[in-house]
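Deviations from the work plan: none for this task. Representative record:
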Amino acid sequence: MARRYSMVAAFAGLVVAIQVATYLAGAPYHLTQLTMTAYYSLLIVGLCMLIGYAGQISLGHAGFFAIGGYVSAFLTTHDLAAHKGLRLVALLQKAGMLLERSDLYGGSHLVVHPWLACAAAVLLAVVIAYVVGGPVLKLRGHYLAMATLGFGIIIYRVALGTELLGAADGISEVPGFPLPFGLIISGNASVRVSNYYLAWGLVILGMVLLLNLIQSRVGRALSAVHGAEDAAGAIGIPTARYKLNTFVLSAAFASVAGVFLTHYNGGIGPSEASVMKSVRYVAIVAIGGMANLWGALLMSLVLNYLSLRGYFGTFDDAVFGVILILIMLFAPDGLLRRHILADLKRLASGGASDEEAA
Amino acid sequence: MTILSVRRVSKRFGGLQAVSDLSFDVARGSIKALIGPNGAGKTTLFNLISGFLPPDSGEIYFGGAPVHDLPSHQIASRGMVRTFQHIRLFPKMTVLENIMVGRHVHSRAGFLAGMLNLPFTWREERRIREKGQEIMELLGIAEHAHTEAASLAYGQQRVVEIGRALACEPRLLLLDEPAAGLNMRETNGMGGLIGKIRDMGITVLLVEHDMSLVMGISDEIVVLSFGQKIAEDRPLAIQKNREVIRVYLGDDA
C-alpha cells in the first residue's frame, strides 16, 4: 500500500522537476508538448490496463480517443441558432447548458457548454465500447486484434468522410474547457504552466485509480482471467464481463484524453483516429512492459514527447513500428523489466544469449 | 439427500457420441468416483456438469435447481467448483494470491469500489487474506505463501489448486484426476486430503485412474464405457462386476 503511493509521489516530484527545469532553462515552450504528452499518457495507461492486466489487445483505441475529441469538438463549435425551435435545444438553453460564442468575424453562435459536450462524448465512447466490446471480446489473440483494427479503421473513415466533422480538415476553433477557480484547459501561452499541471494531475489521478484497481479483488480476478481463463470461470469469475468492463474502462480513459487534448489543441483532425496512432499506443504499452503501468507511463512520457517535438522527423510512424518489432523480438517483457542488468552482463560475456534464443 | 442429479445427459462431437443418455445421482456428503477406460467420456461429463460444455440433451440438477444451461461461473457461484486434469494455476501469482482469487464469489468489491479504494474493501481484503492463510495452513502449504505458484513441485501445485477451490467454500467439489502425475506417497496424501474434505461436509465427485485411490476412498463408483454407464455400485461390488472386468481387461478375461 505504502509503496503504491510512494511511486505516485515520486512521479509527481518528477512532473514538478520537469516544469522547474524548463523554467530554469528558459524554455517554457517545451511544456506545450509535455502537456499533450500527458493526455496521450492517460490513454496509454488505460490501454495498459486492458492489454497488460486483462490480457486483451486493442488496435482501435485511437478510435475511442477520436470519438471523445470529435464529439466534444463538434458540440462546442456547431451553431445551434438555426435549431432554436427544437424542444431539446430550448430545454438545454434553459438549463444553462448552451453558450453564446462570437466567431472570428463577429457573428454570434449558440453552442453546447463544454462540460455537457465532454459528458456526451465520454458517454458515447462508453456506449460504443460496450456495443463493440460485447461480441468482439469473445475473440482471442490475433482475431481480437484484427476485429479492433477493423473498428479503428471504421472510425477513421467516418471522421475522414463526414462533412459535418470537417472531413480531411477536422474541426478547428474549439474553445477552451472552463474549470472551477478560473482555470481553463486551453493552449493559450498565458495558461501554459497551469495546463501542464492540470494535465499531469489528471494522469496522476488516473494512475491512482488504476493502481488501486490492480491491488483490489477485481485486479486479482483480471490477473486470473489473463493467466488461465477457464480456471477463472471455474471458481466463479464472470470472465466475459470482467474483460468487457476493462475494455470499456480503457475506452473511457481514451475518450477523456481525446476530449481534453482537443480543447487544449483547439481542434482535432482525422489523423488522431488513424490506425497508426493505435499501433503507436500498443507499441508504447509493449515497450513499457505490458503489465507495468509505470513502465508504460514513463515510456509514454519519453516517446510521445520526442515524437511531438519532432525528433523522429518524417519517420515518426516508422519509429513506432520499428519499436514494436524490436520489442516483440528481443524484449517481449518490455524495456524496463527487472532483468536488464542480467541481460547486459550476458551481452558482455557474449554468445550466451544466442544459446537461449535457440 | 441428493446434491447432484444427472438425468439422461447426452453429448455428441461430430461422429463421436461422447456421452450417451447418462444418468446418476450424487448423495450429499459422499465421495463418488467416475472411472472408465481412456475415451470413456469422463472428462466430457465433467465439462457438462461444470458448465464448460452445454449438453445436447438431458438435465443436470444441483441442489435441486437446474444448472445445465448456466455458464460455468454461475455454477461455481452456486457452490459447485472444479479442478482440472492439467493443473491450471494462475501464473505470475503467488500461492496466497491464487487462493485469494478463490474468495471471489464471497466478496463483492467491484470496479468502482476497487478504483476508489473504498474503506469497506479494506476489511474485505483483510478477511480474504485471513481465509487464504487459514486454507494454506489446513493444507500444509503456508510456508510457500509468497512463492510463485507455478514454481512449486507438481504435487504441491495440485494441492494449491484444491486450496483455491476450497476457498470458494463449495458444497460440491469436482476433482478431475487429482492423482494424475503424483507419486505413490503423494497419491496417498491426496487420498487423505480428499477424505478430510469430505469430513468438512463437502461432497466430492472425482474422475480418477488410480484404482487403489478410487477403491480406498469412494463411497460409490460409476463406471463409464464409450459414453455409457455400465455399472454404478459400491467399490467392492464394482471390483466383482463381470461387465466392468470385461471392459477393463478385454473379452477373454
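Chain B touches chain A through 43 residues (CB under 8 Å).
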